[in-house]
Structure formats: structure tokens, C-alpha cells
Amino acid sequence: MTFKDQFRFVRQNMKKNKTRLFMTILATAIGCTFLIVLASVGFGLHKSIIQDVMEDRLVTEIQVHGKEAGEGNFQGIKDEDIKHFEEISGVKAVTRRQFLQQSPIFTTGEYSGQSEAVAAYFPEEVKAGFELSEGRLPEKENEVVVGSSFADALSLEPKDGENAFNEDGTVKDKYAYKGELVGKTIEMEVVKLEGGKEVKKSIPLTITGVTKKPSKEWMQIRTVFISEEILKELEAFTGTSGGSPEQVEGAPEDTGRIYDTVSLYAEDVEAVTAINDKLKDGNYMVYSIVNEMKQINMVFTILKIGLLFIGTIALIIASIGIYNTMTMAVTERAPDIGIMKAIGAHPKTIKRIFVLESSYIGLLGALFGTIVAYGISYAVNLALPLVLERVFEEAPPEGLMLSYIPWSLTLISVVICLTVTIFSGWRPAKRATQVDVLKAMRREV
């Protein structure tokens, strides 16, 4: 008997009791749906968290916070360290920033506001992915780039007795700055203390560009990115490192530029671990999001395995129905089995027919279960934001995905479903090969 004949024989016999067949396939489909949907929660949360991490911070970034100098002492990152970082194999860019140790007041026309100022080395910033939404990068020492939310910090001087700001800290509409920024000249006013009195200095700067808006709407960048030459001018004015208004007692002696933030960017993710190890061997204190991702991945891998295990239990319960169906099928088809044996059918052929039937039931259950699971997953992701907003009165995190079904999960679930159903039909199939021919012909099985 060819495989095609065996399959035709199976289909003909399955049509004899459609109700029982339907209920068995339904139970299998429900078990498969439960398995996929349950596991999809782990995959969905994993995807949401990893995606959020990757959007907020580059995966190839390695932050260097200092260097151990022995006996519990630490030192900041200097120019010689920067040069060493640039020579490490696999490093694409080395960014370094120095914060101005006061918040200057920036003025353009009648508008003014207070923002932080940072000295940045733009050639390396660009290599690391620094982008503008408009304008260009600075080419002269008095040219600057401002953050995407810098205009939100500017406001008109309020009238007597009025407040220019709303309760949430934003500038009221009638006082807010609505003009263009690129090409505008702003005055940066800094101060220093002499004899307990403030001495002010104003430096004219030209805005040449505005940074790209961050992926998260709630994030605001009001920073003004100045040149290193401007920072040196301010340090000369205040007589302090970093442009602090007054000398801090107990401050270390000036031994050269010490950067506030230094980050290395690897050429690819694979190079991050090797660079990390090399920096640690040099006693540098480093942090990389890749290390955090490894821990997150491990936690979610355990969670997904656990959910798959729980979902498999539902399939095992459904397999009881398949076992019962196949056992009854063997009893009902005893005469057919007897005839097949009488004409010389091999026991393996008989067993294969019943295993094929249980596999067919499992395949149909897996197919329908997968389709329903995808529908449920879509509905859950669509309804979740509405439930959070209307029932719990909370806005869901941007990009939250509670359920996600990758092709790998579908494949794993189908394999588990088929494996369980085949084992469920294995014992009844073996029993079919043991049917006595004479008793079967007399319908006395």
C-alpha cells in the first residue's frame, strides 16, 4: 500500500465520525493556541524591553567613567587616555564632553532662558551617530549647535505680577519663543565671584544647527554644544577648571583636561566584548549596555522556557482526547484491520496508518491553533492601550508589545504539538497490530 493510498484510507475513516473528529481537533487547537499565546507574552515583553534599550542607547556604546590608580584612588579620563582608546582595535569613535560648571543665561532679542552648556568634539560625535534635524555643524569657535528643545527654554520677560511658566514648567504660549533658531545670534552670559560679588561676561554665539529629536517624546534636550575654544575662554575668565563661578575648596591641582563623560563606540556589536575586556585589563571602569542585555536575555530565556513548559501541559491534556479517539478508532475498524492482515498487510503498515491519522489530527489542530493565536495576539496588542487608559487611567509605555509571535515560536509550537499527538496515537496504533484476524473477522475484538 502506497503512502497516497494510506492517506486516502485515513481520510475516509476519519469522515465516519465527524463530530468526534471535530472535538478532538478542537481540543488540540485550543492546547496549541494556549501554548503559543502564553509563550508570546514572554517574547513580547522581551522584544519591548530590548527595543526600548536599543532605541535609548546605542548597543555599541561603552562608557568609561575613570581609571583605578591603586589603593582605592581613581582618576579621570585625560587626553592621553583618549589617544590610547583611539588606538584600540575595533573602536570606531571616542566621544568626550566637558560640562560648563554653571548654567549660563542665553539671550536672543527679547527672549532669554537658562540651559546647560557642553564642550564637544564634533568629528568624533558625528562618527558616533550625532545627527541634526536642521542646519549644519559648527565650523568656527563661536558657532554652536543647540538641543531640539532649546527653544522651549526661551521666554519673554513676564509682565508685573505674572508668571511666564505653566504649572508643568513649560512656558506660557504668549511668552514662548516661536521663531527660527538656525542663523540666530545668542548671547551667553556667565558669571564669576570676586570678593563676594558677581562679575558677568557675555559671549556672542551663532546657532548653526539643531539636534535631532530623541525617539521618546518626553525626552528634552536643551543643551548648547559649544567649542573647546569657548570653554577655554570661559575658564580663563573664571580662573577655574570647567568654568565654575568660584574655586572649590580642596579641588585637585590642574593636571590637564579631565573629561566629564567619555564613550567609546565599537564598529559592531561583536567587537564590544573584546574592547570591554581590554579596557578592564587597563583598570578602566567601564559600562556597556551589552552586559545588561546579556542579563536581560538570560532572564527572559528562562521565562520563555517556563511558559513553553506550562503551555505544553495544555497540549498533554488535549492528547488524552486523541488517545481516546484513536483507541475507539482501532475498536471500530477491527474488521478492516482483520481484512488488511488477511491479505498480507505488514504490521508496520497498519501501525503507520494509525500514527498517520493521529499526526493528521495534530497537524490540523496546530494549523487552526496557530491562526487563532495570531488573531488573539493582534487583538491583545490592540486592546491593551485602551484597557490601560480607560480602566486604569494610565498611558501605556510607548512601543509596549505584550504579545509577540516570531516564526521560531510558531515552529517550536507546531513541533511540540505534532510530537505530543504522535505519541498519543502510538499506543493505539501498536494495539491495532495485535488484533487477531479471526476475531476481527467475527467482529469480536
UniProtKB/TrEMBL annotation:
Subcellular location: Cell membrane
Topology class, membrane: Multi-pass membrane protein
Start and end residues of each MacB-like periplasmic core domain: 22-280
Pfam families linked: FtsX (PF02687), MacB_PCD (PF12704)
Residue ranges of every copy of the ABC3 transporter permease C-terminal domain listed in the record: 309-434
Entry keyword set: Cell membrane, Membrane, Transmembrane, Transmembrane helix
UniProt protein name: Metabolite permease
Organism the protein comes from: Sporosarcina globispora
